[in-house]
Amino acid sequence: MVQAHYNKILEIANYADMVVGNMEELQAFAGDNSNNSQEVFEKAFKKLDPKERLFVITDGSKGVLVGKYDYKRGKTDFILQSFPCAIKTEDIADLNGAGDAFLGGFLSQFMKGSSLYSCCRAGNDAAYIILKNIGCTYKNEKIDFEN
User: Fold this and answer.
1) Any catalytic annotation for residue 100?
2) Cα distance between residue 101 and residue 108, in whole Å
3) 17-44 average pLDDT score
4) pLDDT tens digits for 53-95?
5) Taking Cα atoms as reference points, which of 128, 54, 66, 55 lies closest to residue 91?
6) Half-sphere exposure of 76 (CA within 13 A, CB side)
7) Which entry of 70, 77, 91, 100 is annotated as an active-site residue?
8) Which of 116, 35, 104, 25 is nearest to 77 (CA)?
9) What pLDDT digit, counting tens, does each position of 87-140 carry?
10) Which of 112, 9, 128 is nearest to 64 (CA)?
């Protein structure tokens, strides 16, 4: 998706204060398939107009990275690395909707002014529930985003 619509994504991202995606999307945007998160983040930030913005990047079992680029130093500051709830491979029913669920959980707390850690935790908890079910569904599990 990133490669097919790169110019439009770049145009839109330049207006954003926060860019959310997964590591594969960030690598495609940055044009860097390496496993060095620092380099991938920095290449992605350098493609955008200089302004303060956050990148919130999910990376499967490796968790979530939240980075902010310091244009004066030319370096990415990793504000947070949050790990998802451990889920056994055999408990994963479907990956569909997990990223959307993460974003929903994350934004539910971000809009309330919660810490980035709480935002990532809420996102991870929401994604965890979706991963255990077929499709973007859940079986009336309650998520306590406050704790």
Assistant:
1) yes
2) 10
3) 92
4) 899 999 988 889 999 888 888 788 888 888 877 788 898 888 8
5) 128
6) 20
7) 100
8) 116
9) 888 988 888 888 999 999 999 999 999 999 999 999 998 898 889 888 777 776
10) 128
Residues 31, 43: contact at Cβ < 8 Å? yes
Instruction: Quickly list H helices, the chain.
Output: 6-13, 23-30, 37-46, 98-110, 116-131
Q: Residue 42 corresponds to which tokens in the numbers above?
A: 């920095």
Bridge-partner residues for 135, per DSSP?
A: none
What is the side-by-side order of every strand in the sheet holding 64-70? 18-22, 54-58, 64-70, 75-82
Q: What is the mean pLDDT of residues 3-20?
A: 93
Would you kindly state where each structural domain of the chain is located, as residue ranges? 1-83, 84-147
**Closest-CA residue to 110 (of 95, 99, 122, 92):** 122
**Considering the entire predicted model, what is its pTM?**
0.85
Could you tell me the two tokens for 134? 């077929």
pLDDT at 66: 94
Is 29 in contact with 47 (CB distance < 8 Å)? yes
Question: Residue 92 has what DSSP assignment?
Answer: -
Which two three-digit tokens encode residue 81?
Answer: 């690395």
Specify the residue for token string 């500051």: 77
